[in-house]
Amino acid sequence: MKRYMAVWFRHLAADRLALRYPGLRQQPFVLVAPERGRVMIRAVSREAGALGILPGTVLADARAVYPDLLFYDDDPSQDKLLASLAVWCYRFTPVAGVDGTDGLVLDISGCTHLWDGEEGYFETIVTRLQAGGYHVRAAIADTMAAAWAVARYGTTHPVVAPGGQAAVMRDLPPEALQLEPLLTERLRKLGFTQTGMFMDMPPAVLRRRFGPQVLDRIGKVLGTLPELLVPVQPPEPYVERLPCLDPIRTAPGIELAIRKLLETTCQRLQQEEKGLRKARLVCYRTDGGQQLVEIGTNSPVRNQEHLFRLFELKIDTIEPDLGIELFVLEAPVVEGLTTQQERLWDLDTCGKKDAVTKLLDRLESRIGAAAIHRYLPEEHHWPERSVRSTNDVQEAATTPWPEHLVRPVSLLGAPVRIEVSAPIPDYPPMLFIHKGKIHKVVRADGPERIEREWWIEKGLQRDYYQVEDEEGGRYWLFRSGHYGEHKPEWFIHGYFA
C-alpha cells in the first residue's frame, strides 16, 4: 500500500530570510514586490501573520496599522531552496518531490519501520525541520492529495490511518481539494462549506453542475485516480577516479595524480558555476591499505593551482608503501561560485580579501580548522549574545562593531567563577584567584554596568571591571548582583591583548 507525506512550509520565504539574518527571528516582517504601481506584500513572517497581516495586502495599508513593520524585497528564487530541501529528505525516503511553491511530498512506502512506525517518522522529520528554523505543518495519508489537504486544513491528527482519507476529508473546506478559486467561490456561495456535503453526489450531477475538475480532485483524494509524483533528482556527487597502470610510490607521481584529478574536477565546477569548500583524496594501496588527505577552504574555490598548493602541504603525510594503484578525489561540500567571483583569483586584481582567504586556507591545512575562528557582531548588549561565530570569510556584518565600548579580544563562552578580595563594596578587587593562581591587581577601571535584556530573560545585573595584574595580564571581571540584596559572586569573562 502506498503512503505519502506532505510537508507545508507556512512561511518559507520569511524563514529563509530569518535564517540568513538571525536578528529577524521573533520579529514581525514582510517581503514585498512592486505590482501595478503599488508595493504589495508577497510573504509574511509567522509573527506578522499573527498580527493579521496577509500576503496580497498593500504595504502602505499594513504600515498604516503597524508603522514599525519591517519590510524587505522579495526574492522569488525559493524554488531552488525547495529542491535543496527535497534532496535533504532523501535521508528519509528514496522519492521526494517539490509540491507547488511552498511544499514537499514524500513517498514513504516501506520507510517508516526504520523510525519505529509512522508516528516516529513524522515526528523526526517535522522536529528536524523546525529545529532548522522552518515553520512547517505535515500530514501522512494514502494519497498525495489527501496528505496535502490535511497538512494545510486538517484540525485532527495529521497521521491519517490507512483507508481513512475519505472520512477525514468530509470535515475539510472545499479549498482542500485544490480547486480553481472561482470554482471554490461558487461552491461556497451554494452553501458547500465542507467537502462532505458534495463528495457523495452522483458523478453525473457533479460533472453537470461543476465540470470535471471536482470529480478529478475527489478521485485523486480517494485514490481512484492516479497522481504523478515527480521526484527531484539529487545532484551527481563530485567524485573523480584515477587508476594507475603501475603502482605510484614517489612524491612526484602523487603530485601528478593530484593535478590530473583537480583539472577534471575544476572543469566541472567551472561549467556548473560552483566552487568546493572541502576536498578529500583517498589513495588505495596495493596491499589493501588506504591513505586519506583532506583540505578545506574558507570560501568556494575552483582555482586548480590554489587547491594543489593546499594538497601539496600534506603530500609528505601519504605513505605509499608498496605503491598506490587508485586515486579518488571527492568534493563533499560545494557552493555556488559565479564567474565574477572567480576573478578574485586573478593575481593582477586580487585584493586583501583574496590574500586573507589564501592565508587562512594554508593555516587551516597546517594547524586545523578548529584553531581558526571568526566572529561577527550582533545587536545585543548582553556579552554572551553580542557576537556570533561564522565559517564564511565573505559574510558581511549586519551591524557595526561597537567601537565606543572596550571589549576583550578573547571572550569566554561562559563566565568562570573566581574568588576575590575587595576592600569595600562596589570597589574592584585587590586580588583574585583563577585556576588556582593568585593574581594581584595593580590597575583597574570600572565599573561598567550591563543589565540583562529583560525581553529575553530575567536575572541579576553585572558590574564589569578591566583589571591588570602585576605580571601585565589584563582581564575582564564582573560582579553579579548588588551587595546587601544578594551574596555577590565574581566571574572572569575575557582576556585583553
UniProtKB/TrEMBL annotation:
DNA damage keyword on record: yes
Q: Which residues form a coiled coil?
A: none
All copies of the UmuC domain together span 8-150
The question of whether DNA damage is a record keyword is answered with yes
Which InterPro entries has this protein been placed in?
Answer: DNA/RNA_pol_sf, SulA_CellDiv_inhibitor, UmuC
PANTHER family, per the entry: BLR3025 PROTEIN, BLR3025 PROTEIN-RELATED
- Give the protein's recorded name: Protein ImuB
Q: Which organism is it from?
A: Chitinophaga eiseniae
Which lineage ranks, top first, belong to the organism behind this chain?
A: Bacteria, Pseudomonadati, Bacteroidota, Chitinophagia, Chitinophagales
